[in-house]
Amino acid sequence: MRQSALTPAPTAKVALGFASVAHTYSHMFVLFFATVVLVLERVWGVPYAELFALSIPGAVMYGLAALPAGWLADRWSAAGMIAIFFIGTGVASILTGLATGPWQLAAGLTAIGTFSAIYHPVGVPWLIKHSRNHGRALGINGVFGSGGTAIAAIVAGGLADLWGWRAAFMVPGLFCLATGAAFIMAWRMGLIIEGEGEASPAPPSDAGNRRRAFSMLAVTVVCSGLIYQVTAYALPKVFAERLFDFVGDSVLGIGGIVSLCYLVSSASQILGGEMADRMSRKAVYAACQFLQVPIYAVAFAVIGPALIPLAALMISLNLMAQPAENALLARYTPLNWRGKVFGVKFLLTLGVSSIGLSLVPLIHALTGSLDGLFILLGLAAGLSFLAAAALPSERPTLTVTAEAGD
């Protein structure tokens, strides 16, 4: 299923649609446990730190599996890997819901992390390849990813409150399997075509700039990934501790506030994507990193409902940088290396940074709270800004077209 011409508009729209749904699932499934653990504390009578540790292998695999997934997409088929993503994630989630003890639960969470890892190194370069306006397509796609993060807490909390914690894994797993079947059907019908051309190829760059860009982006993606991962996993517990007088111990209430923060923040990626198409991507990227630092300093001292808009703001700035980050990486990467390079990127941003997740139960066990995480995240944002400022300079671009579907 290959063609030499540029991607036709209908195929671009179908690619954007399935890539966006896959992005939602990728973030949603790995975050269910961050809310379900609050239920299991009571149901199984096991401390939070001990239960949370069960999710760390899955979080690590969410990054480690990115590299082989990207390699297979380059060597075999990007569309085939996306099909495996849908089917594998759905089955793993259903099996997790059937777990009867901690070790089975840990194995299920690890499988979810492994299959969910397929999307980013495969789906993001696949989408860039099919889109004319990279920033816009990445911004739209990013909103769906943020939507997955946003609804994870409320979906898990709502299903757990209605039908028990097992439903929080099994019901979404069935939906993921159904989406995988629809994707395979669309592929078989020729609605998804893996063309060899690129809709909007980047101009060539010299080797010196590529080395400099890759070195600096290696630092920024680890820092931004650490911020994203730790925030997404820790925010339900932070709200449970700091907003107790506001929401009590309602899992659905806590999940709803987390979801609200991510839903409000998701639109920031549209703005970030449009800015990345119209301005210097380096400037957009560096500014988003810099502005996070004072937000974390203020959030460290705030207790009560005022923490909610602060959390939404720091999430917004982290997400706003993502279209520029992915567009910058694609700018310096040849097409036939995209899967492998994005695999390395997400190995760094989701795998190496996931090691920082071990700090969540550790800090909580040692101090009785997660206050120290705000200091850690502020330092990570500052370091990311310094690296982003050292990226090669580029001229502002204006590549936006009126093509629908981009």
Question: Can you characterise this structure?
Answer:
- The chain is mainly alpha-helical.
- The chain has one domain: Growth Hormone, Chain: A.
- The chain has helices at 9-44, 48-52, 56-64, 66-75, 78-97, 102-116, 119-130, 134-163, 167-188, 207-242, 244-247, 251-266, 268-278, 281-301, 307-320, 322-331, 338-352, 359-367, 372-389.
- Helix 10 (207-242) runs antiparallel to helix 15 and helix 13 (268-278) runs parallel beside helix 15.
- The longest helix is centred in the first third of the chain and has 36 residues, at 9-44.
- The radius of gyration is 20 Å and the shape is globular.
Share in β-strands: under 5%
* Poorly predicted regions: 1-8, 197-201, 396-406
CATH domain class: Mainly Alpha
The termini sit apart by: 22 Å
The string of secondary-structure elements, in order, is HHHHHHHHHHHHHHHHHHH
Number of helices: 19
Mean pLDDT: 82
Number of strands: 0
Count structural domains.
1
Shape: globular
Specify the CATH homologous superfamily.
Answer: MFS general substrate transporter like domains
* Integer-rounded radius of gyration: 20 Å
Question: Under the CATH scheme, which architecture would be assigned?
Answer: Up-down Bundle
Biggest sheet overview: none
Supply the helix-strand structural class.
mainly alpha
Query: Helix share of residues?
Result: over 70%
CATH topology: Growth Hormone, Chain: A
Features:
406 residues, mainly alpha, Growth Hormone, Chain: A, 19 helices, 77% helix, globular, disordered N terminus
